[in-house]
Amino acid sequence: MVNSISVLGCTGSIGRQTLAVAEHIGVRVASLTANRRVDLLEEQARRFKPEFVAVFDEDAAREFRLAVADTDIRVGSGMEGLIEAATLDGAQCVVTAVSGAVGLRPTLAAIDEGKRIALANKETLVCAGEIVMARAKEKGAEIVPVDSEHSAIFQCLMGRGKEELSKILLTGSGGPFRGKARAELENVTPEEAVRHPNWSMGAKISVDSATMMNKGLEFIEAMHLFGVTPDDIQVVIHPQSVIHSMVELVDGTVIAQLGVPDMGLPIQLALTYPRRCESMFSRLDFTKLGTLSFEAPDLEKTPCLRLAMDAARMGGTAPCVMSAANEVAVHKFLRHELGYNRIYDCAAEAVERVGVVRHPDLETILAADEAARAFVRETTAI
């Protein structure tokens, strides 16, 4: 169990839940970072009293400095501030809850310092999984997944060698539009897309869950986290979100991790591992669960999932380009600047038009990320 953390992305959904868990189990908060939500960040800083806070947006950083001028909190900004927060001597663990490829450099910096990474930022492994996992192995840094599905797989594999694993069964609810054809979704609004049937999440990940891009990103992450190939992962639709994922062992045994759909549980495990401690979350009542159902995803109705699985097989910069293009398209959709079905179109077109570099270094990956973002901004400009 760690005794101190840095939380990158503390004002987002995962960041806020992380702070609640840290308070419950008595883990000290050494540093916080946010993009620009100064009001909430000030409230968190005064409550948790970190020694350092970084605000990515320069204007917001200036505002925050004035807001906490009566405290001893040191304030940084931009990428330099994020990296300082991630490498702070006073933090044993870095919770990477920022959204997008902006989390990549701070995560690698924390790994270089040998810190535990409680990984909630999908793009870190989607964009640079080979680089990140190799660096973690070299530096002896632990990566403990926070995503509920990867946390489930992580738990199912505890104490087992890779030679025992036959297949990963990656579950997903199917989102709010499960079973609907693309033509039926032409006029979907942001308000409808963020209304997940089981989970309470931020807007961007809720839209990704609706399009099933989120499951595609998790597919790519699982490859890197657990050292498997695309053929070793099977996506299973499980509408009730009770089983968070499963593993099939070589003898045919299937082991599943079950729990209430609450991100606080995998967050807590990432901080207490290898220990467990009493949580503040509700428990499953098996007498009231009812039926648990499972089905195969319809890849014709979930083209974003199909695209992500294809990108995983392509490798190189393909997952990064797809993810970056998707992120820009989703934010445009949330601002009512782009239709729901165009999210897939933007991501697929970016992979085709931006091109794929097969064995990229970090700078090539970051350049591909920016090229994909620019492509979507230019092709969807109003």
Report the helical percentage.
40-55%
What is the terminal-to-terminal distance?
A: 50 Å
Main β-sheet, spatial strand arrangement: 4-3-2-1-5-6-7
In DSSP terms, counting alpha (H) and pi (I) runs of 4 or more, how many helices? 15
Would you count the extended β strands for me? 11
Largest sheet: 7 strands, parallel
C-alpha Rg (nearest Å): 20 Å
Outline type: globular
Order of helices and strands: EHEHEHEHEHEHEHEHHHEEEHHHHH
Q: Work out the strand percent.
A: 5-15%
User: Which regions are unreliable across 5 or more consecutive residues at pLDDT < 50?
Assistant: none
Output the structural class: alpha/beta
Q: Please, how many domains?
A: 3
Average pLDDT value? 96
Q: What's this model, at a glance?
A:
The chain is of the alpha/beta class.
Topology:
Layout: E1 4-8, H1 13-25, E2 28-34, H2 38-48, E3 52-55, H3 58-67, E4 74-77, H4 78-86, E5 93-96, H5 104-112, E6 116-119, H6 122-139, E7 143-145, H7 148-156, E8 165-172, H8 190-193, H9 203-211, H10 213-226, E9 233-237, E10 243-249, E11 254-258, H11 264-272, H12 303-314, H13 318-334, H14 342-354, H15 362-379
Parallel strand pairs: 1-2, 1-5, 2-3, 3-4, 5-6, 6-7, 8-9
Antiparallel strand pairs: 8-10, 10-11
